[in-house]
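Exercise: predict the fold of this chain.
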Amino acid sequence: MDAVRARALPAADEDPGELVRRTRKKRGLTLAQLGELSGYSAAQVSRYERGVSPLTDTVVLRRFAHALDIAPQALGLTPSPDVRHGHAIGPTTAYPRLPPPTLVGTARQDGEDPMRRRQLLANLAVTAATAAGAPLASTASPPRNEAALGALLVGRIRDAMLGLHTDITVPPTAALHTDLSRAYTDFHACRYGSLAVRLPRLICAAHARNLGGGAPEHGVLLPKSYLLATRMLIKLDEQQLGWMAADRARQTAEASGDAVLVAEAARQLTVLARRADWHEQAMSIALTAADHPALRAGGPDHAAERGLLIQSAAYTAAPAGDAAGMRELTDEAAAIAKELGGTVLLRDHGGGFSPTTVQLHRISAENSAGDPSAALAAARDVAPGNLPSTERRARYYTDIATAFGRWGRRDECIRALLAAEHYAPEETHARPAVKSLVSGLLVSGRTTTELRGLAARVGALN
């Protein structure tokens, strides 16, 4: 017993972060030294100790317990499980696993009019055929109402995830990679009609080839397809289906062994948790993933993904009422972008990571924190022409419109929305967030011909 160090025991109702801080100081360790022992940065250890990052994840808690020789019970953990033949015996906290989808014909049971749906999808196929290379079965005219593209895109992704498409021809692997690249191009260019044909086809074909757990060059197709689907579902405010897509992205990313894709799946889960107002959980997911040893040990792409995760944590702090934490975390992301030399990295991860995209994120975060004047001040430091894609430029003008709308400056708000529409009509017309903003303008003041025309195009007059 004399050779065994006394383990830390908790004071009554002691906060886990405070216990870690007190024990670290008692052991004579600096933040950096504890970070080396636990696998986190000094800044992340500090956030855990101060409660900025909720110290609730059992993996994180066990790392601190092991590094500081704290009794697991002191941190609310069960004792370490028995190990037999190299396997832990005891309860697990792993995510539930979804069964792989089976591509079979299934009759629809949701009451939707099948004739109306077939006609809409046939029209959509005509709209997107040239860009996506889809065979035409009809010469019908494409739909004029781009506001309907969002619903059609969601419906096709849903059917692909449920295995309801039975007419998918599985192309060679090289053709699938080419189709994935074109799907990214559609996303960046905000060509949602084309994406609605290409992305569901990718998901179905990748499942049919059973690529999720294959060789590395094959195994990334399915997680990348699901990550792109998750981004679109979030953009189109389809949270429930977004959770399903994000979990499949996480599962298939883990199967691929790609640390950057695993981290990106965590980032999408962070966004979904934040939108569900689960701020503590969202912060924990983002910052824990950002400081994962596999991510910290990599090259520039790994560092860029860390920056994206820290951005997501900053955005999470804003609606939680922590504007100071939001700015601190955004500055941390900006420092990472500066260290990487200013180039755009991970362009296909929702628009990429660079000093300019961090500043674009700052506009959104200040809006979320309820400070439109700060959002507009941040916008002045962004040159739209330097943004890496049409989708990012549309985001810039939509964020400016949101700031002007909150400030009560209706004319500037409308002009910003028209600028977003100029760059990305399908994006502007399909997004529920834009429709909500326009609907608010319709009922809050005078209605101009310009506003009514925009409202008709985004479906706010229906």
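Check your answer against the key: Strands lie at 82-84, 87-89.
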